[in-house]
Design a protein that fits this description.
Blueprint (H helix, E strand, L loop, with lengths): L1 H14 L3 H4 L11 H9 L19 H12 L17 H9 L15 H15 L15 H17 L1 H4 L8 H4 L8 H5 L2 H16 L13 H11 L19 H5 L6 H5 L8 H10 L1 H23 L3 E3 L3 E9 L2 E10 L14 E13 L4 E12 L1 E7 L11 E6 L12 E3 L4 E3 L1 E8 L5 E2 L5 E4 L7 E6 L6 E7 L11 E8 L10 E7 L9 H6 L9 H4 L8 E6 L25 H14 L3 E11 L1 H12 L6 E5 L10 H7 L4 E6 L10 E3 L7 E3 L13 H11 L5 E6 L2 E2 L14 E2 L5 H5 L4 E4 L2 E4 H6 L4
Parallel strand pairs: 1-12, 2-13, 16-17, 16-18, 18-19, 19-20, 20-23
Antiparallel strand pairs: 2-3, 3-7, 4-5, 4-10, 6-7, 8-9, 11-12, 14-15, 15-17, 21-22, 24-25, 26-27
Helix pairs in contact: 1-3, 1-7, 3-7, 4-5, 4-7, 11-12, 11-15
Length: about 775
């Protein structure tokens, strides 16, 4: 790799490559970065932000810096470590840099770097590569990509020059070196001195390999070695055939008496044979018995013992397994793998430290620089095993059985490795997700009879089933609607959906219905995505169902094939669209009515509708279109533009109980003035007025609430959060504070029933309130 770099750097500098040769439209020949960028491009350290853009004035991020350095080093990359975003380009380089101490946990993956931070990383890299340190100079606080390119190009050149020094030892191979013990193993070197001291040279290899062992009794079985040390002390005597019988060899009489020695004098009488390389090699080969004796003390016992130890051992191949995922605040996560070993196990022999686990997701990467997906490829990430135990086939812990559950760590900061979905920039789509589960090195299990049990690591071929807890309990179906005036060949609109009934049988009109409308990323034709893309399965939890009395509440989760805000051409509705009406409006209403009609236990006076983001828009769209049908609504971070909301619409819904939820730092559906965070592209920094207060915008949730209040609405409530944080107490950020999610994710508070308002002097949660609403 370094030789290749040296050639490329040399070619680049000699030919004077400038910006134009790079075809980067933003790096011209007169640019101060032109030569440096050329060197990086020639050596494939960078391909630019796109085919023709390098973006030299943009801030350098941690991800970019370590990726450049990793390519310069040319080392093998580790799997993406937990806590690092597996983005398809920088994840492995971040893990590599962390493992080599170039960065630590304080370096955020996509954060811009100042000169001090960059130079600290460069110093560590140069020390690791044993090359002269280089530094970067920055005009402003943040180092630009162009400024970094100058330092990186110098690194490429310095790194490429190193081979000449590292190869020097190879030039010191002289004949005298051939006589050294370490090199007597090479026949070509053994031949050179053989012209004058051939017999001793033929004997030297054996001596130099283990000279001290010639004194040990264990080598008395090897007469040739006994002769060799003696001969090397007096080379001139090795020319005399009689020396094979020379009393000098009486230093080891047992060897002289050994019948094996009778084979050697004939060789000693024919010194000419020692001139042939093949025969000088033969003595070293005949030394193998003595070497075999050495391993006999270290390697052989372990090999000979293994059969005895494993004589009754159980070895399992082709292990089948099932993955188990659950909906989390941040989306679905595979937290458990159930292995079907087919052998009754001793439960006491199963523990977390005995297992190693890795997830293998075949997904496109996502280039955050270009904001586009890359070609699908397997991405292997090590998972931390937190627990292991004998279980039944469903992964439930048991005192005995043939199945083993392996549980792994999950967290919002390292969600990709456990995620059975992939966000392709538009939708969350299920992907191939398999696991490599193996016993840790040197570990074994024990079966019920006390025999050792081992198994081969699981592979993709062993994958049997993917379980998604709670979501699998929902019924999945589809519904097709056609307009009354539709043409005969019109296929209509098909909506998939998931549903859940709290009881198998219930009295007529006894059970309320909760409708949830998904966000933009959960569209498609797989309702499981709509159930766990956001933690919608939590609506079926006891914590929420308890508010609805003995019957509980039914749940309906419709799914649009694209997104609710589709204008009919696959594009989003905008404020310029006159009505803001979804193409799915009538199809969705028809689905709801059909579902209610098919389930007579549903109380038509207690139908509640809500949803988040795109689904929040659809919630407002539905209640303004059909205000008398619903008993209450709960839109979350809703995207219904104020331009579509007429006074007539407000008047129609002002008496409908509505609970609105949003967060001030929502950077997707913006309801407060702010700007993107320079260090974190997912964050949104609020602008403050002279009094230090956030500046509200008159749109979306703010506009809806204010206009309802102004219209005299008495049953409208607004849970407005400063930001979105983990409320479980399980996950913290680097600052030790509760983990902070993107501000758009205010649905977490709703789906966890954490929105609380004081109503008639009593604190109530959003679903506690919802359960009390009716027409």
């Amino acid at each position: 790799m370094r030789k290749l770099l040296a050639l490329c750097v040399s070619a680049a500098l000699v030919s004077g490559i400038g910006g134009s040769a790079l075809a980067f439209s933003d790096v011209t020949e007169d640019s101060p970065y032109a030569e440096a960028v050329a060197v990086l491009a020639e050596n494939e350290i960078t391909t630019g932000r796109s085919n023709d853009v390098f973006d030299p004035e943009d801030s350098l991020t941690t991800a970019q810096l370590v990726t450049f350095l990793g390519r310069i080093a040319g080392q093998d990359l580790p799997p993406v470590a937990e806590g690092i975003v597996d983005d398809g380009w920088s994840g492995s380089y971040m893990s590599w840099a962390l493992a080599h101490g170039l960065i630590d946990e304080t370096f955020e993956q996509y954060a811009p770097l100042d000169a001090e931070s960059v130079n600290a990383v460069l110093a560590a890299f140069c020390a690791m590569q044993e090359i002269e340190a280089v530094t970067v100079e920055a005009a402003d606080a943040a180092v630009t990509r162009g400024e970094a390119a100058i330092a990186l190009a110098a690194l490429v050149e310095a790194d490429a020059e190193e081979p000449s020094e590292t190869e020097e030892p190879a030039e010191t191979e002289e004949p005298s070196e051939a006589e050294k013990p370490a090199e007597t193993e090479e026949p070509s070197e053994a031949e050179e001195p053989a012209e004058t001291e051939e017999p001793s040279e033929a004997e030297k290899p054996a001596e130099t390999e283990e000279p001290s062992e010639t004194e040990e009794p264990t080598e008395t079985e090897e007469p040739s070695e006994a002769e060799k040390p003696a001969e090397t002390e007096e080379p001139t005597e090795t020319e005399e055939p009689s020396e094979a019988e020379n009393p000098a060899e009486t230093e080891e009489p047992s060897e002289a008496e050994n019948p094996a020695e009778t084979e050697e004098p004939s060789e000693a009488e024919e010194p000419a044979e020692t001139e042939e390389p093949s025969e000088t090699e033969e003595p070293t080969e005949t030394e193998e018995p003595s070497e075999a004796e050495e391993p006999a003390e270290t390697e052989e016992p372990s090999e000979t013992e293994e059969p005895a130890e494993n004589e009754d051992a159980v070895k399992i191949a082709d292990v089948k397994y099932t993955t188990i995922a659950a909906g989390q605040d941040w989306g679905p996560a595979i937290y458990k793998v159930v292995l079907n070993l087919g052998v009754a196990l001793d439960a006491e022999s199963v523990s977390a430290e005995k297992f190693a686990a890795s997830s293998v997701r075949t997904v496109p990467g996502f280039d955050y620089e270009k904001m586009e997906a890359t070609e699908p490829a397997p991405q292997t990430v090590e998972r931390t095993v937190t627990d292991a135990y004998v279980c039944d086939e469903n992964g439930v812990k048991a005192e005995e059985g043939t199945y083993v559950a392996v549980e792994m760590e999950i967290s919002p900061a390292a969600s990709d490795a456990a995620n059975p979905f992939f966000y392709d920039g538009s939708l969350n789509v299920p992907v191939a997700h398999t696991y490599e589960i193996a016993l840790a090195e040197g570990e074994t299990l024990t079966d019920a009879e006390g025999k050792a049990v081992t198994f081969e690591a699981t592979t993709a071929e062993g994958f049997e089933n993917a379980v998604v807890e709670v979501a699998d309990d929902f019924t999945k179906d589809e519904f097709t609607w056609k307009a009354e005036d539709a043409e005969e060949d019109d296929e209509g609109i098909t909506l998939t959906y998931a549903s859940w009934m709290p009881q198998e049988e219930a009295e007529e009109a006894s059970t309320p219905l909760i409708i949830w409308l998904h966000g933009a990323g959960e569209g498609g034709t797989d309702p499981v995505v709509a159930l766990v893309g956001n933690k919608v399965v939590n609506l079926a939890s006891e914590d929420i169902q308890k508010h609805f009395g003995e019957t509980g509440a039914a749940i309906l989760v419709p799914q649009a094939p694209t997104f609710w805000m589709d204008n009919g051409e696959g594009e989003y509705l905008t404020a310029e669209d006159e009505s803001g009406r979804s193409i799915y409006t009538d199809a969705l209403m028809a689905l709801i009515e059909k579902f209610v009609a098919d389930h007579p236990e549903i109380d038509a006076d207690r139908i509640y509708i809500g949803g988040c983001s795109n689904g929040g828009y659809m919630t407002v769209n539905m209640i303004t279109e059909f205000p008398a049908y619903f008993a209450a609504a709960y839109p979350v971070c809703e995207a219904y533009d104020a331009a579509w909301m007429t006074d007539e619409m407000v008047e129609a819904i002002k008496d409908l109980p509505i609970w609105i939820t949003a967060a001030k730092n929502d950077n997707i559906v913006k309801i407060f003035e702010g700007e993107a965070d320079a260090e974190n592209p997912m964050a949104y920094n609020l602008k403050l007025d002279d009094d230090g207060s956030a500046i509200a915008l008159d749109n979306f949730s703010n506009n809806l609430y204010n206009r309802l209040v102004d219209a005299g609405a008495e049953k409208v409530y607004y849970s407005l959060f400063d930001d979105v944080r983990d409320m479980t107490g399980l996950y913290n950020g680097a600052d030790g504070e509760p983990y902070q999610y993107q501000g758009h994710w205010s649905w977490l508070y709703v789906l966890n029933d954490q929105c609380v308002e004081t109503i008639e002097d009593e604190e109530v949660t959003i679903f506690q309130w919802l359960a009390g609403q009716g027409k």
